[in-house]
Specification:
By secondary structure, this protein is of the alpha+beta class. It has helices at about 5-10, 25-35, 50-60; strands at about 15-20, 40-45. The longest helix is centred in the middle third of the chain and has 12 residues, at about 25-35.
Length: about 60
């Protein structure tokens, strides 16, 4: 299945591949990463620049 993060909100999948996040404005990027990352049940693959991949570490380390 191929879909946008916004349309996939509320759903889960065993494997999630996030890409194209680099083109999103910095203001909304963190929220998209969080929503996209939280949809993965087993495997998460993020494709992006070093800056985007660093944000993944920051987003997953923040307490909720």
């Amino acid at each position: 299945m191929l879909d946008t993060v916004q349309r996939f909100k509320g759903l889960e999948s065993p494997v999630v591949i996030l890409w194209g996040i680099d083109g999103v404005a910095a203001q909304g990027r963190q929220e998209l990463l969080y929503v996209g990352m939280s949809r993965a049940k087993s495997i998460l693959l993020v494709v992006g620049s070093a800056v985007t991949c660093a944000l993944v570490g920051e987003t997953s380390a923040k307490p909720r």
